[in-house]
């Protein structure tokens, strides 16, 4: 599944410009032109760098406008702010600067609704005080372009585009792109930053590339370093790999190198989990619009016991839907779906399923095809059924809220769900009888 390589002259600034114009939306290309032009005028060269360069060479669209500047980036960022503020086609422009790191970010919004980010980073040196620590940044003075590129993860990402010189490739990244190799830039790369272990698996899955022999050797030696990272950093890498177009391939490679258990020791990958990933891949369009990674995280956790699924999402510091849906899917698989059968009345289905989010039920329906008709019946036919009368009507009848009040409303709901009450008048008669029995 190796990526195709479009032929064009990588040393020709004009050929590079034409490739960018072909791949980028009009708004992004306009911004690229202004950043590089103003950078040249101010003698603060700004070069596109990293993933967008790699994808440009592969003929893939990438909208990350990441620039490295060969002088301190803030004067260029401030001048860009003034320039963009004067442009009639823009509705909003914000600038955020970070002095210690020499970085700046411009958020730009266009009249047509397009929003984009421009990241400017001063060329830097990085030092790691200990394995797995966040790097210490040194920008005084700015590093050379070659030194800045050397701090990156793989040769295929240690590339830059100069508006005057074309491709800058000091470490053979272009050749590795052509040959399909993932190669680190120095032997301590995985030790310094263990997140590169997962990132490499993600790129291997996305592009169909392989680790070169030396890189694979260093990877295997550094596996345990991933488990020593903070939960947040491990979570972020898992999230990114689950958000890929084909997360099953990434998971296979993680498992091959024993990295999945380093993200969390309860996570596993086997033929059963793989089959469920393929089911989800074919049916994920049926799931309401949660982020894709949540759907696949839930699928991964479905094979864990509910208490284990809860432990995974809690210890990896997931929040919101990502913390809620996976344990629900696990509970459905292990505790609820075995109880579902065609003899159940609608009210009984409601009792089993009402506390689960629709998204969890949709995922469960894909993972358990034999239970899907019942789950679909519940989602499509049962949940829309609602009593027309409620608590206000009971109050009119002289009842006060309390346990009996709730019991009556539950009986009303169940009778409506089971088709025993099909009109407002029937509901009124039902409530009047129950209220009379209590009040008498």
Q: Whole-number average pLDDT?
A: 92
How far apart the termini lie comes to 77 Å
**Cα-based radius of gyration, to the nearest Å:** 28 Å
How much beta, percentage-wise?
5-15%
> Shape, please?
elongated
- How are strands sequenced across the largest beta sheet? 3-4-5-2-1-8-9
Helix content: 40-55%
What class, by secondary structure content?
A: alpha+beta
Unreliable parts: none
What keyword list fits this structure?
440 residues; seven-stranded mixed β-sheet; two-stranded antiparallel ribbon; alpha+beta
Structure report:
With 440 residues, the chain is of the alpha+beta class. It is built from 22 helices and 11 strands. A 7-stranded mixed beta sheet has the order 3-4-5-2-1-8-9. Strand 8 and strand 9 form a beta hairpin. Helix 14 (292-301) packs parallel to helix 16, helix 15 runs antiparallel to helix 16 and helix 16 packs across helix 18. It is elongated, with a radius of gyration of 28 Å.
Which helices and strands, and how do they pair?
Elements: H1 13-23, H2 26-41, E1 46-49, H3 51-58, E2 65-69, H4 74-85, E3 90-98, E4 103-110, E5 115-122, E6 125-127, E7 136-138, H5 145-150, E8 160-162, E9 166-168, H6 173-179, E10 181-182, H7 189-192, H8 195-207, E11 210-211, H9 213-222, H10 231-242, H11 247-256, H12 260-263, H13 271-283, H14 292-301, H15 306-315, H16 321-336, H17 346-353, H18 358-367, H19 372-382, H20 391-396, H21 403-417, H22 424-439
């Amino acid at each position: 599944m190796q990526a195709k390589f479009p032929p064009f002259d990588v040393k020709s600034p004009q050929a590079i410009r034409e490739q960018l114009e072909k791949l980028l939306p009009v708004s992004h290309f306009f911004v690229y032109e202004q950043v590089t032009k103003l950078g040249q005028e101010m003698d603060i060269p700004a070069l596109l760098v990293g993933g967008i360069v790699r994808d440009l060479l592969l003929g893939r669209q990438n909208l990350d406008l990441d620039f490295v500047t060969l002088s301190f980036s803030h004067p260029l960022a401030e001048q860009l702010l003034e320039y963009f503020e004067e442009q009639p086609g823009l509705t909003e422009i914000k600038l955020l600067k970070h002095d210690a790191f020499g970085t700046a970010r411009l958020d730009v919004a266009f009249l047509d609704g397009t929003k984009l980010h421009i990241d400017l980073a001063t060329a830097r040196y990085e030092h790691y005080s200990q394995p797995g620590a966040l790097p210490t940044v040194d920008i005084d003075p700015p590093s050379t372009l070659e030194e800045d590129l050397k701090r990156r993860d793989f040769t295929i990402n240690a590339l830059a585009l100069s508006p005057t010189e074309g491709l800058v490739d000091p470490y053979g990244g272009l050749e590795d792109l052509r040959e399909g190799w993932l190669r680190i830039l120095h032997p301590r790369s995985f030790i310094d930053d263990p997140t590169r272990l997962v990132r490499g698996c993600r790129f291997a899955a996305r592009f169909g590339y392989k680790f070169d022999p030396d890189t694979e050797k260093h990877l295997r030696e550094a596996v345990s370093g991933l488990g020593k990272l903070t939960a947040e950093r491990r979570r972020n890498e898992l999230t990114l790999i689950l958000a890929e177009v084909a997360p099953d391939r990434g998971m296979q490679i993680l498992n091959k190198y024993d990295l999945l258990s380093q993200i969390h020791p309860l996570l596993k990958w086997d033929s059963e989990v793989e089959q469920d990933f393929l089911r989800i891949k074919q049916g994920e369009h049926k799931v309401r619009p949660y982020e894709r990674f949540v759907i696949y995280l839930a699928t991964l956790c479905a094979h864990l016991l509910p208490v284990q699924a809860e432990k995974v999402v809690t210890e990896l510091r997931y929040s919101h839907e990502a913390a809620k849906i996976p344990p629900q899917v696990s509970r459905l698989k292990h505790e609820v779906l075995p109880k579902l059968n065609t003899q159940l009345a609608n009210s009984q289905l409601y009792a089993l399923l009402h506390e689960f989010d629709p998204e969890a039920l949709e995922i469960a329906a894909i993972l358990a095809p034999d239970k899907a008709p019942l789950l679909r019946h519940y989602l499509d036919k049962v949940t829309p059924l609602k009593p027309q009368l409620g608590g206000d009507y009971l109050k009119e009848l002289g009842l006060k809220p309390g346990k009996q009040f709730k019991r009556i409303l539950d009986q009303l709901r169940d009778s409506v769900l089971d088709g025993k009450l099909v009109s407002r008048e029937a509901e009124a008669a039902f409530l009047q009888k129950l209220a009379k029995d209590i009040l008498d």
